[in-house]
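STRUCTURE REQUEST FORM
Protein name: NADH-quinone oxidoreductase subunit E
Source organism: Odoribacter laneus YIT 12061
Requested output: structure tokens
Priority: standard
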Amino acid sequence: MSEIKLSENKVNELIKLCEAYGNQPGELINILHKAQDTFGYLPREVQEIIARQLGIPVSKVYGVVTFYSFFTMTPKGEHPISVCMGTACYVRGAEKVLDEFKRVLGINVGETTSDGKYSLSSLRCVGACGLAPVVLIGEKVYGRIVPGDVEKILKELD
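Status: completed
Returned output:
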């Protein structure tokens, strides 16, 4: 993974974030959530700064980041696409929809297109089972999606 260099402003913002939580190791998950909201993801440099501020090993921060599926160490695309793979969606063909997104975008789950426009992930349940299969793109919910809808949806986003 290529090394990013955070600007001094971003480093200071991260330090202030940790200070807002009293630099308490018990606030690690809350700090990581806020940091991911700020940066869009949690690269190694961000994890190292948080560890230093909280006085804990980087390995502990990394362990939390990799344990919880909410956290990501890779930047998300401008249009993050999440395909629900919960039971209702799966039974109604979500896997074929996911396969079509992979084919059209040329990426796998957890990856971002080289132009940074799209990233692809799968979720366990969106809670919109009546609309299955469901795809989330950013905050927008697309329901009753079939593989044939994928290219049309992507064209709308361009």
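Reviewer notes: The helical segments are 8-20, 28-39, 44-54, 58-67, 87-91, 94-105, 150-157. Residues 112 and 119 are 4 Å apart (CA to CA).
Form closed.
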